[in-house]
Design goal:
The chain folds into 2 domains: 291 residues, no CATH class; 120 residues, D-Maltodextrin-Binding Protein, domain 2. Helices cover 65% and strands 6% of the residues. The protein contains 17 helices and 4 strands.
Length: 440
């Protein structure tokens, strides 16, 4: 019972000392504000970008062609402007008809227009299109206008062939088209591009947060050990507690302070995401109709985020504490913890590359890597958010992660027991290996 009491006392001291510091409180407030701002980015960007509509002019040889071009391009450049309900939002593009091409091009140069689509009739009667703009030739607006030009040209050819308007409507009726999974066993619906991007961003954000939890708070543990060791407080504390109790108290204490800080950040972020549609409706009106929670953000995923965050921290923090016990000065902490930092960096980079599509997350070697305990906290959440992880994969990775924590505690305790009493030059790898073999 005294052992548990010692661990609790050491942990309470770590929490109290850290929570009372100005840097901790300021850091918590800044992190919470930053997460809220990131959650509200869609509202902020829409508000800033939606203040005014871009203006595009159409110059055509005939009034009927100009009217058709205006209607077709308006539909293409403002796909969400038609349809729904109450108060229509301001369109992204306002399409007007101009009579003089030279004047319209001058308006583009002066910034009064975003672009002008010039239409001319060639010798054989067909239409030719030229888009005058300062934007990139391969940009979204130019690509959509190319589609519109094709539609306008085909409709004009049908007019010249005396095809009735009713028959033209049937010619342009969209074909039946569907997208399906290549695996016949998969029955879940295929997600659209927006949903897939939302899931990728969700996995990317969670990977970053896990990396920050492990590296930032792991360094806290190592710095705390080195600080007490350099001030010789460690020798006094060891008279009342065993090295293992001191190790456990520091890990749990710093972990509790980290949990409080990240709890505030997560609650602020989730609250902002939940409030985003409401805030968007107040600020943007009907422009916020499409804003909703990110696709894939579920209570189960948030629970897994908490579990992997805590277990990943425990795995690395015990090793960070052992590394911190091997140095006598805080200036040497970064070099001592470099191996853990490099391993976590590998997991972070692979996890980010997999969620962003730079690495094939469905490959066999990725499925193997995600089961490695030192990598799984960074990689599994992205697979879960993307719908790639099976329940048994998640369960197996958690079992392996828990087993690795047990092994890390055994290794760290043996190093820590002797390391906290070593002063002078930091021992090399042979000396560390000797500590592992001989122990306390």
């Amino acid at each position: 019972m005294s052992g548990i009491a010692n661990i609790r006392t050491i942990a309470r001291r770590e929490v109290t000392v850290r929570v009372r510091t100005r840097s901790y409180r300021l850091g918590t407030a800044l992190l919470a504000i930053g997460v809220i701002a990131m959650a509200m980015l869609p509202v902020i960007i829409t508000k800033i970008g939606g203040v005014s509509s871009s203006k595009v002019a159409v110059v055509a040889p005939e009034a009927t062609v100009a009217a058709r071009a205006q209607a077709t391009i308006t539909t293409l450049l403002n796909p969400t402007s038609s349809g729904s309900g109450a108060t229509p939002s301001a369109p992204d593009f306002v399409i007007s008809i101009a009579t003089d091409l030279a004047t319209a091009r001058e308006d583009v140069v002066e910034g009064r227009l975003s672009g002008v689509l010039g239409i001319e009739r060639e010798a054989d009667g067909s239409l030719a299109f030229t888009f005058y703009s300062n934007d990139a030739a391969s940009g979204r607006t130019s690509s959509l206008l190319r589609q519109g030009a094709n539609a306008i040209a085909i409709a004009d050819r049908l007019d010249r062939l005396a095809i009735p308007a009713a028959d033209q409507a049937t010619l342009f009726q969209p074909a039946t088209y569907a997208v399906a999974w290549p695996d016949p066993a998969r029955t879940d619906p295929v997600k659209d591009g927006a949903a897939a991007v939302g899931q990728d961003l969700l996995g990317f954000a969670m990977t970053i947060l896990i990396f920050m939890i492990i590296v930032m708070y792991g360094n806290w543990v190592a710095m705390s050990v080195a600080e007490e060791k350099s001030s010789r407080v460690m020798e006094v504390v060891l008279n009342a507690a065993t090295p293992f109790q001191l190790l456990a108290g520091k890990v749990f204490g710093v972990g509790s302070a980290a949990l409080i800080q990240y709890g505030v950040v997560v609650v602020a972020g989730v609250g902002a995401l939940v409030a985003m549609p409401i805030v968007g409706a107040k600020v943007l009106g009907s422009s916020a109709a499409a804003m909703s929670l990110p696709e894939g953000l579920t209570p189960g995923l948030l629970l897994l985020f908490g579990i992997y965050g805590i277990l990943g921290f425990l795995l690395y923090a015990t090793l960070y504490a052992a590394a911190g016990s091997l140095v006598s000065r805080q200036e040497d902490v970064q070099s001592a913890v470099m191996p853990m930092t490099l391993i976590s960096m590998v997991g972070y980079i692979v996890g980010v590359y997999a969620t962003t599509g730079l690495l094939d997350a469905r490959s066999t070697w990725m499925a193997v890597l995600v089961q490695i305990p030192f990598l799984s906290p960074f990689m599994m959440l992205g697979r879960v958010a993307g719908g790639l992880a099976q329940p048994w994969e998640v369960a197996l990775s958690l079992v392996l992660l828990a087993a690795a924590i047990g092994g890390a505690i055994w290794v760290a305790a043996r190093i820590y027991a002797v390391g906290v009493l070593l002063y002078g030059q930091r021992p090399g790898y042979r000396a560390v290996w000797k500590l592992l073999r001989e122990g306390m």
